[in-house]
Amino acid sequence: MSGLCAAALHCINPKAMNLVDLVALVALLQLLVLGFLVGSARGRYGAKARAGLL
């Protein structure tokens, strides 16, 4: 095992990284879709977004 490959999960099990990539992609897609749905619902019902986090 080379030094570059020693700390990388994809060198040990490439299918594990494919699963991680898929889960990350689905999470990003979910974030975009839910953000779009929330934005359109706010526009439809006239709800304003919060001004700040606190």
What does this structure look like?
- The chain has helices spanning 3-6, 9-12, 14-45.
- With 54 residues, the chain is an all-alpha fold.
Q: Could you write a compact summary of the structure shown?
A:
The protein is built from 3 helices and no strands. With 54 residues, the chain is mostly helical.
Write the SSE topology.
Layout (H helix, E strand, L loop, with lengths): L2 H4 L2 H4 L1 H32 L9
Mean pLDDT metric:
81
Report the radius of gyration as a whole number of Å.
20 Å
Category by helix and strand content? mainly alpha
Supply the number of structural domains: 1
Choose one word for the global shape.
elongated
How many beta-strand elements? 0
Percentage of residues in DSSP E strands:
under 5%
Provide a count of the helices.
Answer: 3
Question: What is the CA–CA distance across the termini?
Answer: 49 Å
Order of helices and strands: HHH
Largest sheet: none
Query: Residue ranges: pLDDT <50 for 5 or more in a row?
Result: none
Helix content: over 70%
Descriptive tags:
74% helix; 0% strand; 54 residues; mainly alpha; elongated
